[in-house]
Amino acid sequence: MWYRVTIIVLACLLLAAHFLRFDHLLLTGVSLCLPLLLLGRNPITIRLLQGALTVAAIEWTISSWSLVQQRLALGQDYIRLSIIMASVIAFTLLAVKFSGDLTKRFKTNQKE
Length: 112
Hints:
Blueprint: H1 2-21, H2 25-33, H3 43-74, H4 79-111
């Protein structure tokens, strides 16, 4: 279970770094606080985290599209950028899946 939490925390840190790059300090703070939802061990807070990570994956997709379009307009290579951004999106979606697994685990722990 520790690896699931680690991947979720890393996905949130990666999102915070993305927002910090563009000086969105409020979104950076929110992204840094998202892993704290894991402390509640409540399925509702975990679902909130899962939703936030899903929105993060959508944000990564939009950013990827924008960056690739910029590279194409400038006539620069975009393949490496596409591979890196696809990896980031896949990593974030993996964190979404793992947060869903945690929801199931916390639901079963509450019934016992």
